[in-house]
Design brief:
The protein is an alpha/beta fold. It contains ten helices and seven strands. This is Zinc finger protein.
């Protein structure tokens, strides 16, 4: 959730019913501020990578939890639909609840350790924490039961957003070509998936990257560099397209290499682009300006007044807005795409939606 490095994609989707599954399977969560429920409250970081202050959390929890929204995030809704309790964050006390899953996500993090180094929990470290949990599970419920829990569990990821923005905002001395950098990102991501697979994980969910150039923060950045019409930044969106093109190829490769490996991809890009252009279709009035922030499009990440820029404005009715702050969606937006992730059609979530993925035996 850095001033520049935590830019995320947000997808708005049509309304779907959310039936609850009858059985339970654990949910393990990895990634960045799209998914972070407050892990960054427990590490030595700075306010730019945190959301543990007002007005974050005001709509649902009524207090700031560390989630970069006015309320719940995607994993919170998915847990509800799957008839699971709220998935605990890794640093939370009460590890007896880990049988339902754990959330390891960290705002500002990426696939690469270099992304937000020293301020966020990178993906490899999240894998290390997961291995710790796997050991705890074996001690608590035994080898046989823990193997069953881990193999039936869903492993959901939102990552690479910050890696892409790190390359976008780097100076001219950035040492990698786009192809080399993408190869590094995919290599780290693959090693994490393989690490989880080695511990028994079989069902993986990945959110692809949306049109990153269309976030309020990036529109504001575009104005700063002289693009006066407030349009999306094409260069940023093209980086997302590059990642999205490589993602299914890598997952199909893993499916061939690893017996029993299954995956699904949520097409953030498609639905987010549509929601930007047709906000009323998704129940929103405003899709270019955020509810909380300052400057053009309220695109400066100042919400709460605890970061570098202290001044901020807060909208009157958050339900009108796609974005809560300059880089993250409102709870209402998260709910809409959680519904689609849960039981959407193959044009946006494939080869499985999460309802069918939870029901799929391994």
């Amino acid at each position: 959730m850095a001033l520049i490095s935590s830019f995320y994609i947000f997808v708005l989707v049509a309304h779907f019913a959310t039936p609850v599954v009858c059985h339970q399977a654990a949910l393990f969560v990895f990634g960045d501020s799209i998914f972070d429920p407050g892990n960054n409250n427990y590490i030595n970081t700075i306010a730019s990578f945190q959301a543990n202050y007002f007005p974050y959390g005001e709509s649902f929890f009524k207090y700031p939890t560390g989630r970069t929204s006015n309320g719940r995030l995607i994993p919170d809704f998915i847990a509800e639909y799957a008839n699971l309790p709220l998935i605990p964050l890794y640093f939370q006390n009460g590890k007896k609840h880990f049988i339902h899953g754990v959330n390891f996500a960290s705002a500002g993090s990426g696939c690469l350790a270099e992304t937000s180094r020293g301020f966020a929990i990178d993906l490899q470290t999240q894998l290390k924490y997961f291995k710790n949990v796997a050991k705890l599970l074996k001690k608590k419920v035994g080898r046989r039961k823990s193997k069953q829990i881990l193999s039936n569990a869903i492993y959901i990821f939102s990552t690479a957003n910050n890696d892409m923005f790190a390359s976008l905002t780097a100076n001219s001395t950035f040492p990698y070509s786009d192809r080399e950098y993408l190869h590094m990102i995919m290599g780290n991501l693959t090693s994490v998936w393989k690490g989880i697979y080695k511990e028994g994980g079989r069902k993986f969910v990945m959110l692809n990257l949306g049109p990153l150039g269309c976030l309020p923060s990036v529109r504001a950045l575009n104005l700063q560099i002289g693009v006066t019409n407030g349009s999306c930044m094409e260069k940023a969106t093209n980086k997302a397209k590059m990642f999205n093109s490589a993602l299914p190829k890598m997952l199909k490769k893993l499916e061939k290499q690893l017996p029993g490996f299954k995956y699904t991809i949520f097409n953030f890009f498609k639905v987010f682009a549509d929601s930007i252009h047709n906000p009323t279709k998704y129940g929103f009035k405003i899709s270019k300006t955020s509810c909380c922030g300052t400057g053009p499009f309220r695109g400066i990440l100042s919400c709460g007044g605890k970061r570098q820029v202290k001044e901020y404005e807060l909208c009157n009715n958050v339900k009108d807005y796609l974005f809560f702050d300059s880089t993250h969606p409102s709870e209402q937006a998260y709910q809409k795409y959680s519904e689609l992730l849960w039981n959407g059609t193959p044009d946006v979530v494939a080869p499985y939606n999460l309802k069918s993925f939870f029901e799929l035996s391994t």
